[in-house]
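Take one protein record:
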Amino acid sequence: MATAAAVLTLLLFLAVIRPAIDRGGLGEFLGIAVLFVAILLGERWLRSR
């Protein structure tokens, strides 16, 4: 199971994250990542109420 997770993480990095950084820059990628984490935390907060 851990091997599958490692392979999928590597594929995610090579297919999604690296091209996104090359096209838009690291700042844009980090902005999207922060937005994604904020949405996840907001959903968790709403479910805990």
Q: What stands out?
A: The CA atoms of residues 10 and 16 lie 10 Å apart.
